[in-house]
What does this fold into?
Amino acid sequence: MNTTANIDEVYKVINAEHHDPFSVLGMHRLESENAMVVRAYLPNAKEIEVVELSKNNTYPMEKIDERGFFEVVIKDRNDFFKYNLRATDYVGNTFTFYDPYCFMPVISDYDLYLFNEGNHHKIYEKLGTHRMTIDGVEGTLFAVWAPCAKRVSVVGNFNQWDGRRHQMRVRGSSGVWELFIPGVCEGELYKYEIKTPHNEIYIKADPYAFYSELRPNTASIVYDIEGYEWHDADWMRERDSSNSFDKPISIYEVHLGSWKRVSNDENGFYSYRELADMLVEYVKYMGYTHIELLPIAEHPFDGSWGYQVTGYYAATSRYGQPKDFMYFVDKCHQNGIGVIIDWVPAHFPKDGHGLARFDGTALYEHYDPKQGEHPDWGTHIFNYGRNEVKNFLIANAMFWFDKYHIDGLRVDAVASMLYLDYGKKDGEWIPNRWGGKENVDAIEFMRQLNSTVFQYFPGVMMIAEESTAWALVTKPPYTGGLGFSYKWNMGWMNDFLRYMSMDSVYRKYHQNLITFSLMYAFSENFILVLSHDEVVHGKCSMINKMPGDYWQKFAGLRASYGYLYGHPGKKLLFMGGEFAQFIEWNYKQSLDWFLLDYDMHKKMQDYVRDLNKLYRSEKALYEVDFHYDGFEWIDCNDTEHSIISFMRKGKDWHNSLIFVCNFTPVPHEDYRIGSPFNTTYDEIFNSDWEKYGGSNVGNFEPIKAEEISMHNKPYSMRLRIPPLATIVLKPRFDRKD
It folds into this structure.
């Protein structure tokens, strides 16, 4: 082989295993010969010539290896110049292009340092694909982290998916490979071809891709995520200048693929833009403050509901393009509705195109399955102790707030991150360095995650789905907490649903199930949740959890929702629960909207709508959710009648409400409860009103407190208590009071 390059280095390029093909390919100065040399490797080229752009000189290249390695020495030149390559293939086709190996590195050493340190909070602006212009040449920068790979190439339609064509260079010891490819435009499909340390060839999607093909296809797509014109400045300004703790938060949890569908065919989805119009209008009509979306990051399997993510930076293409999802969020904000998305940093699937064994090694996960796998889920666990993995996840959280204006992340399966033995038997897990079961790296990751997010976006919500009694989940890291703003109250949910599922005859023996939550209600910033997990896998829909006949089921559900809205904590209800869908949720089909043609279902929808209206209009129900000052028992001990009564209070004691909940189908006349005020009360809400499908037992006249002490209160009042119902009383106060 007659070449000016080192023959071993040339063979590395030809064999597609060079860590720095720029040291061989492109233009180089030959100091000893006062000449310039240009080398190129195009396996399918018959002939190539170098075209000097400024002078239009052409220099035919010599094919020095039949596998497609070309070289030309340009004598009496020692200056670098801009050039194109003009190649002719064996069919006679000629194509001209800029040589990708004539460009300098793009990502700075400081960016790489921050990434390896785990502190590049916007690494998504460097890794992945980015359209740009370099020296007047338009193209796309590709960058990926694969530190143990022998070689990484970009493959796509633009190079016939040939991994020999666009071999990338590794940036020192950072493990980051990059290549600027001229002429690659938005919309191009691509993947990374990786030669592993064991000489295996993996074809991987881009972990930092902004857009991906619709499943079952798995290629990443070059996409310019910049340029969307937002119209939510007022919303963003208000959000970032206030906190949500003393605001009403009523969340409508939604799976976009099954809320409404065009058809029940596999791809019968509405688009982000269509859903923006339909869903926003509905949520606004119903009075919810926020929408929470089941995961919308790219995932290959519909049956995972989005919880097995392969594209953490890509909004799923099931419903459209990334800017279509921006439109969805923008439309929500313009209508006063916040957007929360489910986020899954706890685990990832083993799909071949995803993160698993990305460069042939356990890169994003642990190598030992005792540390790196969830046996119940069949997924990998992230290695939270590796800086670049932490950076990947923390930057991903930042990405959704930064690029999509998301208002909150509900962090899935936090308990599985906190405990090394989660879902594992003895011998299936490895203790931490002190012999305990706590995942120290995950704890530190969550603290760093929340601290970083709130540093940039102080008005957003970080919500933990944490199902154990782990302490200080919503307390700041500097006090030993995890730093979340809210925690799902799974204990309340389990007790509440167990109680409401009982026949009313037995509830008197289990009243502690609906009162015990007040023993810990103010230990964290809780959200009371009736989520998707409670209406699947044979658990029954909300209406079918209720015992009794048809009327009692609806009455019981209304009473339970009334209790939910009276209990301290923010609120969440999964779609379909608001109109009492009878069947369990099925991700493959639309909700049963036809049920609204039936009187009781329409009245249930009206009831939930009015509950939201009551909730948002009464400060007592949301201003003091996380302190004892906002709640006071009147009577929690009437187990014989399964009746409880309590008071909710706002920051101003004048903003007070009294709730009375009857969890049996027995009405009561002249039922006396204690009253803290010697005043007149009005019944402002009653789940048994006829307009909601009830029996219309109520207190239709003002109720005057009497000077008869009861329930440790100086006064008391007599009430009519409807069957299976929640009533809400509001005290009257004169200005002088």
